[in-house]
Amino acid sequence: LSVLPTDIPSTVISIDLSHNSLTKIESSAFSVFSDLEKLDLSHNIIATFQDTALHTVGSTLKWLYASNNRIANINDVPLRMLRHLVYLSLNDNSISYLTPDAFTSFSSTLETLELDSNRLTQIPSGIFSGMRSLETLRLSNNNLTSIPDFVNLPVPNSLCDLFLENNKINSSQSSLSRLTSLEKLVLYGNQLITIPSFSNAQGNLQELYLQQNKITGIVEADFDKLSLKKLHLGNNRITSLT
Length: 242
What we know:
Blueprint: E1 14-16, E2 24-25, E3 38-40, E4 48-49, E5 63-65, E6 87-89, E7 112-114, E8 136-138, E9 161-163, E10 184-186, E11 207-209, E12 217-218, E13 230-232, E14 240-241
Parallel strand pairs: 1-3, 2-4, 3-5, 5-6, 6-7, 7-8, 8-9, 9-10, 10-11, 11-13, 12-14
């Protein structure tokens, strides 16, 4: 398919258009689907959405899959139309930057945000404002040089799974102390030379993945505030345990 079919029943609540050849989403594409909750547009060649393409589903859409496309600018996806989104997948696109207000319209409802395999070099701290329900954040395979700043993430919050593997992170300084519900932190395949700093707030952390970094040594204090069940440190440069 290269264009949206016109004979889809208007009563559907889920539409799967993945693995087709769609190049853009026209302004009236979903105008008749007043009950649509799930839309899968992954694995197409979409570069842009018309400004009002998602307007009529703004109050109903909860799951939007747009991974494996050609989206370069988050503003090309009219997310401001969506007010109750729970799941957003934008993996495997060409997004190089995000504006602080990119997800504002559904910040209080979003539970999963996937931005793996894009071209991001930094994440604006303001982007997490209001994300009290966020549980899973995926930022793997980008060009990040530091752990995102979570200073604007509400406390308490729900973030339990944070994926940052295969970036270029070389600084362990961060605001991880705000992640009071964090259970899984994935940082393998980066350029860390020291263990990230943790506080008593990370008492829920169960799994920590730090393999394939440049860590040279470990001291007891690195983990004394944690109650880990899984710790991965393979393929580093560790020469001492003190």
